[in-house]
Amino acid sequence: KGYPNARICNNIFANAQRIARLLDVDDPRNLKHRVVEALRDPLPPVEVKDGPCQEVVLTKSFDVWDVVPMISHSDSDPGRTLGAGTTVVRGKHFWGGSHIGYNRMNFRGPDYSSFQISPGSHMDQVVTHWYRKGPIPVTINIGIPPTCTMMAGSGFTYVILPRGCDELGVAGALQGAPVELVRARTQDAWSIASAEYVIEGYIDTTQKVWESPLAEKDDVQGVHPFHPEWSGYMGKSYRTYKFQATAITHRADRPLYYGLIVHGMDEHFIDGIVREACFLELAERIVPGLCVDTHIPMGMTDWGGVIFQVKKRRARDEGLQRNILTAALSISLGARLGIVVDEDVDIYNIEDVLWALTTRVNPKEDVLTICEGGFGQTFQPAERSSAGDRQWTQSNIRFSGAMGIDATRPFIHKDAFERARYNVEVVDLAKFYSPEQIRKAKEGQRDYAKFLAERGI
Question: What's the DSSP call for residue 329?
């Protein structure tokens, strides 16, 4: 509405099977393994002279509000905000590599915006290093290749993706062709050539901008609502560094704005797939061959936790699963729950995971508090509230600690934990019941009952 030359869409990533088809992967559960390959062998981006993202170039007297069809996510948002833009930093400002990530924004004027940076993130590392050393040139890219979108959601696994790494190179390896970049028109920066919209500009670390008018009026941070967050809670308004726009470029024919629904299945798969791969690679680097799979269920809120599946090979593997668990919850800022289970537990069925927690966990020995008093995330209300009467900012909070749960069976007692099994494969229901009777019986089964019946356990 109000943007006749624009289109909007959402939920492209809300279906794991669709993502698997995009990347020519047979099973969505194997997506992480494809990402691991790309992490190990990135395909660097290539520079091109021009691209569709610069078919229209606006450098003077522009108003972002008139060009980019930003959306309001909830009734408590302070109006329409920009949560779908992906920030690209390349070259010397990212230690010779390339970074792509999300930073929520609210344009408080025609050409300047707030720019929220998660403490500890790549962008936090960038602004810390370049603080008051001059403008930091960036581009905000909207409507980009799917693998670039997936890499943008991969935050807080920086042991695997350290500063100076080539995140766009990983995206290129994932899609099987280099990501094409075109030089920005007004900044010493690079735009994704196939993007629908690009906002060029720079981060000014000498100036601050409030995310919402109400927060500015009351001069208080971490109280007034602003933009839903990945944790499933409403975000809060803060005072951020200033983003100054210097140009808008876009495709000529009805460019597409990708809205990004936060804390939905769309954002879950965007954030989760690469993080699952990074945790799998982390485990492989700590103990080669022990971890066979990882999974981040929606209820773990993307950046909030992870489940490891391990296969102990011998008695002296005992305890290594805790090394993996402790490392993962320490390096991923904001993660609050990690679980490790054996290979006979289906990590994609949360009830089977609960079964393992119920039957294999000694609450005195197997529930670990990890990194208590360390560095958490203000996007988690449990961390924000630790500030008490002080403003709910990162400098005033303390991490209550993550909960690590070792739900694996002791290797030396493996036989005692053998799962009971019925030989369901030898029973042909069609010999005893009609197709309609079988259908009705299965309709009455709960999901976990179907899961158990199909496996005979």
Answer: H
- The pairing of strands 7-9 and 256-258 is parallel
Give the type of residue at 194: S
Q: How far apart are CA 47 and CA 133, in angstroms?
A: 27
pLDDT, one tens digit for every residue, the chain (457 residues): 899 999 999 999 999 999 999 999 999 999 999 999 999 999 999 999 999 999 999 999 999 999 999 998 888 888 899 988 999 999 999 999 999 999 999 999 999 999 999 888 999 999 999 999 999 999 999 999 999 999 999 888 999 999 999 999 999 999 999 999 999 999 999 999 999 999 999 999 999 999 999 999 999 998 899 988 888 888 889 999 999 999 999 999 999 999 888 888 999 999 999 999 999 999 999 999 999 999 999 999 888 899 999 999 999 999 999 999 999 999 998 889 999 999 999 999 999 999 999 999 999 999 999 988 777 676 677 776 666 777 766 676 667 788 999 999 999 999 999 999 999 889 999 999 999 999 999 888 888 998 898 888 8
Q: Which of these CATH numbers, 3.40.50.300, 3.40.50.1000, 3.30.830.10, 2.30.110.10, describes 7-261? A: 2.30.110.10
* Domain spans in the chain, listed from the N-terminal domain onward: 7-261, 287-417, 424-455
**Which tokens belong to 261?**
């629904």
Bridge partners, residue 85, by sequence: none
pTM of the model: 0.94
CA 53 to chain CA mean position, Å = 25
Query: What single letter denotes the amino acid at residue 8?
Result: I
Identify the helix (H) or strand (E) that includes residue 295: strand 291-295
All residues at 6 or more sequence positions from 298 whose CB lies less than 8 Å from its CB, including other chains: 265, 268
- Count the helix, strand and coil residues of the chain and give each as a percent rounded to the nearest 5: 35, 25, 45
Domain 287-417 in the same topology as domain 7-261 = no
Neighbours of 15 (CB within 10 A): 14
Of 51, 44, 37, 23, nearest to 178 by C-alpha is 44
Query: CA 251 to CA 192: how far, in whole Å?
Result: 12
CA 60 to chain centre: 35
The architecture in CATH of the region 287-417 reads 3-Layer(aba) Sandwich (3.40)
Neighbouring residues of 89: CB distance < 8 A, sequence distance ≥ 6:
98, 99, 122, 123, 126, 136, 137, 138, 189
